[in-house]
Amino acid sequence: MPSNEFLFPAPPQAGVRVHGETALFPVHRIYCVGRNFAEHAKEMGAEVPARGTPVFFMKPADAVVTKGGDIPYPGMTKDLHHEVELVVAIYRDAAGVVDIASALDYVFGYGVGLDLTRRDLQNLAKEKRLPWDTSKGFDFSAPLSAIIPKQQIENLEGLVLSLQINDVMRQRAPLSDMVFNVAEIIHELSKLYALKAGDLIFMGTPSGVAAMLPGDHFTASLEGLIDFHGNIAAV
């Protein structure tokens, strides 16, 4: 009879803390939105996306770092950049395309995270018109706060996203500045992928991205709701 056992022990399931809970949110996939703040698109020399055409890429589920602390400076780069982002946690499977009116029904809650980027590798890949997965989808590239259940948030778009490095403000913008809001992104993603419980969506970053150095301390915030602290490990 065929065996249902794995050939070797399966890796642990990636999980994210939930504010006020002991159970973890299991991570299925990590989707990321590019160029979702117009000022960031401009600072990167990119065209601001037209309505209806968001830019997507992905990170592996086990890229999440959920306890803060020390985050290793990645290899093969001399230009690690921070990108602070709203993170959306999905807790229901979607059957086909999700309409905008019901999209928020699939949301469990929200957090704040960093889309860490090996910018030199990304720029080189862009120059050669190659995929830039290695610049985004590396180990420990998705530090993430605990998830706040959506019932505890009264006005999401009224919140301000911010990032301090060594107590100096680097990035700060209201979520209302996003080109595509949460419902629109869920709708567009569901055209491309079968959205599943456990999916995370990093919603894009405001302007002010810059290098992080070994020894740097960061505080990522949804101001008035949650702060997330960590360090880039000294080498």
What features would you describe in this structure?
With 235 residues, the chain is α+β, with helices and mostly antiparallel strands. The chain has one domain (15-232): Fumarylacetoacetate hydrolase, domain 2, CATH 3.90.850. It is 13% helix and 30% strand. It has 4 helices and 17 strands. It has helices spanning 38-43, 119-127, 133-136, 182-192, and strands at 15-16, 25-26, 30-34, 55-59, 64-65, 70-71, 80-81, 84-90, 107-114, 117-118, 142-143, 148-149, 160-165, 168-174, 200-202, 217-222, 226-232. The chain has a 6-stranded mixed β-sheet with strand order 4-3-15-8-9-12, with helices on one face. A hairpin with a 3-residue loop joins strand 16 (217-222) and strand 17. The termini are far apart. The mean pLDDT is 93.
What descriptors fit this protein?
30% strand; globular; 17 strands; alpha+beta; Fumarylacetoacetate hydrolase, domain 2
In short:
The chain is α+β, with helices and mostly antiparallel strands.
CATH C-level name: Alpha Beta
Strand content is 25-35%
What is the helix tally?
4
Task: Report low-confidence residues grouped into runs of 5 or more.
Answer: none
Shape: globular
Alpha-carbon distance between the termini?
Answer: 51 Å
Estimated structural class:
alpha+beta
